[in-house]
Amino acid sequence: MTTQPLSALTMLLSRHTRRREFITLLGGAAAAWPLSARAQQGERMRRVGVLSGSAPDDPDAQARLAALRQGLQQLGWIEGRNLQIDARWGAGDAAETRKAATELAALAPDVIVPSGSAGASAVLQATRRADRIRDRA
């Protein structure tokens, strides 16, 4: 069986078709790239507020915060990637705890984790105030 050499026109059209297919493929990939990049970044950053009645240098409070971070990480919540943790400290003072709770509520985190009943009470008051302010706006 003998094969005939391709004509110049066939080679030109074949090369042109391959180039056109390549350009179409490249153009399609370029158009889809921003969509796939957005899909990968689609998960929004979640915000967790942590209110401790202790001082920032209290070893027990730091250990509890580290345990929270580790537990969240094991569940796939990675600080800096899909999670931001905002910690505030009451330093054993009720007024400071209320102030810290108000700061956290103003950040509008997805959840606030208080430490102890005094912290829970301060968070409850602060979030109720924040809700009333948002409702008026």
Task: Report what the structure shows.
The longest helix has 33 residues, at 8-40. With 137 residues, this protein is an alpha/beta fold. Helix 3 (94-106) packs across helix 4. Helices cover 61% and strands 13% of the residues. A three-stranded parallel sheet has the order 2-1-3. The chain has four helices and three strands; from the N terminus they run H-E-H-E-H-E-H.
Quick structural overview:
This protein is α/β, with parallel strands linked by helices and 137 residues long. It has helices at residues 8-40, 59-74, 94-106, 116-136; strands at 46-52, 83-89, 111-114. Mean pLDDT is 78; it is low at 35-39.
* Low-confidence runs of at least 5 consecutive residues: 35-39
The helix/strand order is HEHEHEH
Question: pLDDT average, as an integer?
Answer: 78
Q: Tell me the total number of β-strands.
A: 3
Q: Separation of termini?
A: 85 Å
Radius of gyration: 29 Å
What profile does the largest beta sheet have? 3 strands, parallel
Structure classification: alpha/beta
In DSSP terms (H or I, runs of 4 or more residues), the helix count works out at: 4
Percent of residues in helices: 55-70%
Instruction: Please report which band the strand proportion falls in: under 5%, 5-15%, 15-25%, 25-35%, 35-45% or over 45%.
Output: 5-15%
